[in-house]
From TrEMBL:
<keyword id="KW-0812">Transmembrane</keyword>
<feature type="transmembrane region" description="Helical">
    <location>
        <begin position="162"/>
        <end position="181"/>
    </location>
</feature>
<protein>
    <recommendedName>
        <fullName>Alpha-1,2-mannosyltransferase</fullName>
    </recommendedName>
</protein>
<feature type="transmembrane region" description="Helical">
    <location>
        <begin position="240"/>
        <end position="258"/>
    </location>
</feature>
<keyword id="KW-0472">Membrane</keyword>
<feature type="transmembrane region" description="Helical">
    <location>
        <begin position="303"/>
        <end position="323"/>
    </location>
</feature>
<feature type="transmembrane region" description="Helical">
    <location>
        <begin position="55"/>
        <end position="76"/>
    </location>
</feature>
<keyword id="KW-0808">Transferase</keyword>
<keyword id="KW-1133">Transmembrane helix</keyword>
<keyword id="KW-1003">Cell membrane</keyword>
<feature type="transmembrane region" description="Helical">
    <location>
        <begin position="126"/>
        <end position="150"/>
    </location>
</feature>
<dbReference type="InterPro" id="IPR018584">
    <property type="entry name" value="GT87"/>
</dbReference>
<dbReference type="Pfam" id="PF09594">
    <property type="entry name" value="GT87"/>
</dbReference>
<comment type="similarity">
    <text>Belongs to the glycosyltransferase 87 family.</text>
</comment>
<feature type="transmembrane region" description="Helical">
    <location>
        <begin position="212"/>
        <end position="233"/>
    </location>
</feature>
<feature type="transmembrane region" description="Helical">
    <location>
        <begin position="384"/>
        <end position="404"/>
    </location>
</feature>
<feature type="region of interest" description="Disordered">
    <location>
        <begin position="1"/>
        <end position="30"/>
    </location>
</feature>
Amino acid sequence: MTAAQAQRKAPEGPSRQPRETASAPASPAVPAVPAWRRPLDVPLRALREAPRRPLAVATGVALFSLLVYAVVRHLVHTSMVDMVVYRAEGAAVAGGHDLYALRVTEWKLPATYPPFAAMLFVPTTWVGVGFLRVAVTAGNVALLGLLAHFSFRLTGWPRRELRPVGVVLVAGLGVWLEPVFTTLRYGQVNLALACLVLWDLTRPDGRRSKGVAIGIAAGLKLTPGLFAVYLLITGRVRAAFVAGFTFLATFAIGALVLPDATWGFWTKYLYDSSRVGRTEVVDNQSVRGAFARLLHTPDPGTLATLAAGLVAVAGLATAAWAYRSARWLPRAEAWGVCTAAVTAVLISPISWTHHWVWCVPMLVLLAAEAAHERSRPEAVRRRRWRFVFGATLVAFLSFMMWMVPRKGQLVLHLPALHQLPASIYPVVGICFLLVSALRVRARRRAAGAPLVRVPRQRVPAGADAVPDEAVPAPAR
């Protein structure tokens, strides 16, 4: 029987109803998510996928922690002085007053940020100080959770369904980290800047707008500009230039709207360190501040400058080395970003304790390494990363720089035993840079890879080419 005859003899039945199937009504299409809901769709879906019991326990712990924090905050009479300064800057811009002549609060604090930042503070003048205190505090707690989310995305840890649990825990318990506690106490913008930078760095390198958020952060506060250098030395040239041009755009906006203030800031006030604060106080947790206390002088001079320069070169080189070791190093981008962040805070002439909110991604990275270490078989399991994570966590929870004698000129006469607690963050930062370098070196050695990239040999004209695999690795 031919195929045509078989087809003619086949009985009619449900399996042969092409016309009816074609004419059957299509299944209802899934309604598209409205544009205004798209930013909320991802976190809401993540909450739905998170395990219910751990999320409920984490929420209870976080709420209890925030309640205790609210009581402590009331007892210590939180002033939020920096928020008051920001509001005064916005009022000066709105009222057409001299931005850098203002002095507010009982400490006569001046404006220290670029004019572009002062322009963004104008909306703070639309509400009263009492409401602003609540709004800024709630906003910073939310930003702490967002910073945890970006940190988890950067490290790729924990599993996606567990990340809402981690975000809730960090938002509730992270307020006790000294840099975060001080950021909330002063009403600072550090968490917002860190979120801008991490949002940019966790986006795909192919995005044409990658670098914009870093440029905006640098326009608000100059220190994040070091991340543009990090992008450049890690080969992401376009993103680095986008960050640079965005920063120039913030300068141009400030110059157009506030030409006198822009001229004054970039030609005079930026270089007047007395407007920012004293170098030697324990609030300043930079390399320069540590040297000022160690040498018992408010001006540590060339020695501190050379030390900061050495840290800058070593830190950026280690960050680039980590990023370029992605073939052998798990979480290579996280190591590179955290190393660059620590370098930026260390080398700044003035790095207040609240500038160290980068401890959040640092601790997430170390926790990821400790979790990976714990997952290994018992026979080969070690405890080194759990020790490193624990020691770093204790340092940022300790508040120890506030326990040394620091009133008046006492800070210039600290004995040797007080130097470590007075400069605990620079010590932790230098140790982190060392750990980062050792981590990259160990992973490359374990993989049998060269410690540095071996350049391809130049081949004379007419000679046979030497294949890449024939290039020997340097002796280890």
